[in-house]
Amino acid sequence: METKKTSRISWCHVICCIIILIIFVVTIGIHINAAESNNGIIASSNSANEAIPLTNNYQELLVNNTNSTEEDDESQNEVELAGPKEEVTVIRTDIDSYITTYNEDIKLLATAFSVNYEDVVKDLYSRYESNNSIGFEKTNVGYLLNQSGSIKKYNTVEYGLVEYFYDYIEKNPKKVNNKWVPYTGKSDYVEKLIIYFSTRVYTNVDTALALSIGAAESGYYTSTYMLAQNNIYGGMSSSGLIRYRNIEFGVLSYVKYLSNNYFGKGLNTISEIGYVYCPTIDSNGYKVASPHWEKLVSTAMNKYEKYNFNVTMSDLI
């Protein structure tokens, strides 16, 4: 009897243990799932926290990231636009850029017109600020107007710059240094000045012909008497050979003279120019260009037609 009782108690225990085990397993499973679920939320939160510092270097990431999303692409465009916005603060104004680009031309012409370079720069800024509403025209930095009151436009920047200097000395005669400086330098500098003024300023002038006429008049730019007067073309006034303040202004005046009185009037050959420039009367009593003068100029043309007319500002300054 006792054995049977013991056997019956053991089975009950087994059944109870099984039930408890099942409950335990189910309970543990619920806790595990809950923990995993909570861990997922925490992981997601940690991921978000890790992403936060990356926003501080977002622009750098956009530059280096070649597989951006559409949203990233929009941000990339913003970054690209941000670059030029920063550059705008350092982009030169019209007049700053002009003075930087043509600084050596301004210096050369300040020397030619015998005025102070710093005074000229100040005047350029003043004119720019006073005429801001008109708009900047780089061929007319002096804001010179035609008869109708509209701003003039010139063929080249250098031509407009020369016109500005003529206007400047007219309005500021006391700022001109009238000291006479006889030229004692080399002939090649004179030739380069002729090339500069005929290729960049008075571009209707034939450069080789201008060089040849000057050479014929001044002994290939070696005549001490003429160079002392800074006059290379034999220009005369009522008191004799015209004297210019310096060689730069003398050469400028010569090329301008050819432009206005000869090439500008359609006279562009040796004979046509010589008929007015150096005429004579032939045996039949007709006015013609001096044969001797024509020969001198033609001989010089054989030399200057082969010249390289590419002159840089470093050749002149």
What labels would you give this structure?
elongated; 3% strand; two-stranded antiparallel ribbon; 317 residues; disordered N terminus; mainly alpha
Low-confidence stretches: 1-8, 34-91
What is the CA-CA span between the terminal residues? 134 Å
Please provide the count of β strands: 4
As laid out across the biggest beta sheet, the strand order is: 1-2
Using only C-alpha atoms, the radius of gyration works out to 44 Å
Briefly note the structural class of the backbone: mainly alpha
Quick one: biggest sheet?
A: 2 strands, antiparallel
In terms of DSSP E residues, the strand content is under 5%
String of helices and strands: HHHHHHHHHHEEHHEEH
Structure, explained:
- This protein is mainly alpha-helical.
- The chain has helices spanning 2-51, 58-64, 70-88, 94-101, 103-112, 117-130, 157-171, 187-201, 207-218, 224-228, 247-261, 270-277, 291-304; strands at residues 236-237, 240-241, 279-281, 287-289.
- The strands form two sheets. It has a two-stranded antiparallel ribbon.
- A hairpin with a 2-residue loop joins strand 1 (236-237) and strand 2.
- Helix 8 packs antiparallel against helix 9 (207-218).
- Residues 1-8 and 34-91 have low confidence and may be disordered.
How are the elements arranged and paired?
Blueprint: H1 2-51, H2 58-64, H3 70-88, H4 94-101, H5 103-112, H6 117-130, H7 157-171, H8 187-201, H9 207-218, H10 224-228, E1 236-237, E2 240-241, H11 247-261, H12 270-277, E3 279-281, E4 287-289, H13 291-304
Antiparallel strand pairs: 1-2, 3-4
